[in-house]
Here is the input.
Amino acid sequence: MTDDGERQLHEQFRVLRHHAGAGAPEFRDVVAGLVRRRESAGRRRGRVAGLAVAAAAALLLFAVLRPGGRRKVLVDLDAARWEAPTDFLLRTPGAELLRAVPRLILEGRLLP
Amino acid sequence: MSPDDLAAQLEQLHAAAFGWALSCCGWDRSVAEDALQSSYLKILDGRARFAGRSSFRTWVFGVIRRTAQEAQRRALLGRWLPFTRWLLEPEAADGRPDPEAVLLRADEAARLVRALARLPARQREVLHLVFYEDLTIAEAATLLDIALGTARTHYERGKTALRRLLEETDR
Here is the structure.
């Protein structure tokens, strides 16, 4: 870029700075706004805390007062029997031998 | 630095800081004012501390830049979730004239703002810092947390692109 082009850019930015500066808020107004802002931040924190408490209370109330009270048992667990689809894999040949106590007979006598 | 010293230094920088806040917020006055006020609040409340690693001005501009990014994220969130405005946003701005409207009255300035808006963010930031805020490219690099060579590249490419955009609007 030529020096002339750069000078032109400087001039255009100077104009921009002039116009932006004309619309700038006064420093003291901004600082005065900080006080309001601190207060509103406090109120905002209060609002968030209030909302959190209200939400927790609502959840608690819902849990306690929901229709039907305790959850109904829809399945009679005592009567039901559930078997996993892979249970057959656990059935090994000769497994019934492990369920009975073997009787050992030595020389015609039943051992205790 | 005492709060009074901080306030005095901020007052000296105020006009430049407002210009930088406008640039960081896409020349949206209300968002820029919000960002500027939040930045002052952070500085005066001690949530942002000047460690002396750069000039005071560079540091303040860095705080404004980060705060502006937060403000823009909040504005975006507010647009998508209107309820969050009630929780997150500060009170509405007063009835002072909108500088964007003031700017738009000045045709040349408005043309420059429009052309700047079409530049990539980094180029726009470097050009603003150098031409508007009279920072050196090295200071701009420190503020934007980028290498000096990178800042120089953004500066040169930005200047060329900006000239081209301004010429386009001349035609």
In short: Chain A touches chain B at residues 1, 5-6, 9-10, 12-13, 15-25, 27, 29-31, 33-34, 36-38, 40-41, 44, 47-48, 51 (CB under 8 Å). The mean pLDDT of chain A is 81.
